[in-house]
Each structure stands twice: as C-alpha cells, then as structure tokens.
Amino acid sequence: MKIVKYSLGQLQANCYFLIEGSDCLIIDPADEASFILEELQRRNLKLIGILATHGHFDHIMAIGEIQLSFSIPLIINKKDQFLIDRLSETAEHFLGFKQSIVKPKNIESTISRQLVNTYGLQIIETPGHTPGSRCFYFKKEKVLFTGDTLFNGTIGRFDHSYCNKDDLRNSLIELTDLPEEVIIYPGHGEKTVIEDEKNNLPIFLQYLE
To answer: The pTM is what?
Structure first.
C-alpha cells in the first residue's frame, strides 16, 4: 500500500491517498475537491472509498463535491452528523467568510467488505475530540490514521462544548497500547510513531486532568 499525503486548505488538513494498484482510498479529503479530482485523474486512479476520521469542516468540506463525480458513500461515525449538518456555518465562523459548500450525502458508518479485503482496514473508535472521532488502523502495514485525536507531540482540542476529556483520555490510552513501531499519520502536521507518543502519554494525561 502506497501512502500519499497532501496538506490542503487554509488549515492545512492532511488528506491521504492510500493506493493499491489502481485503486485509491481517501482519508479526510479536506477542502480542495478540484485538486483531489485532478490528482485522481492524473494518477489514473479509481476511487473506491472515502473515510473521515471526524466531522470537522477542514477534514470533510471536499466530500460533497467529490461525490458529484463519484457515487461513493462517506464512511464516518454518525455521532458526528451534527457537525456535518452545520458544516457551512462552522466553516464561515472559523474562516471568516462564506463559502459555497456541497454537503456530503450517502453517509454510512460501517466499512464495506471490499475495503476490508483490499486494505485490511480496522476502525478504532476514539471519541473525545468529537463524539464520533475514530482512527483507521492497518495492522499488516503497521500504520494508523489518527485524525485530530493524536498528533506528533500533542493531542487534539478538547475545549468545545461537545468534547469529552474522559473519553479522550481513554482513547489515547487505547491508541498507545498498539505496537510501538506503528506509524501514526495525523490529521495535521508530520507523522510520528506510537513509541514516541507513548512516552508523551503522561504529559497528555496531565492536560486532561
């Protein structure tokens, strides 16, 4: 499996292409649909799935427009549906201007058998940053996509009204129990490994007291 990262949009959210042959699975398409569609065409890739680690606008704004070209469901925990519902308002609040946003449709919470068979994908539910935050684990490749739950040297925000510090604490403990050599691909910034973030865990947990 080849992993290609693009940092997109004003908040530089990481969008990942996971490529197997000519098949492509996208994790967190961020907010530059035209770039993503052009890149799929340039690389001659067949889009077979779209996954979102959580419902924040900077990770999912491109999805609705992508779905105009590809009849593919969005796989996301439906506990974050409320964030999808207010996508336009949240984007305007944080970016300071209105945008024309095509909201995602055809939303599902479970992954297809095709994705399981092709990629060996496992979902780890990691609430805290948002109620529906989840991580995507590929055991064979020893890679983990953490969204905004766990970054290189830090953790996701927990100051929104819908955040839950206790849930985030438990999620971080669960993730750092994975094999130490697992590579972490976060929602922003550079990659890291479980071993390093496990060493940082006592500091992270202090934030959550």
So the answer is: 0.96
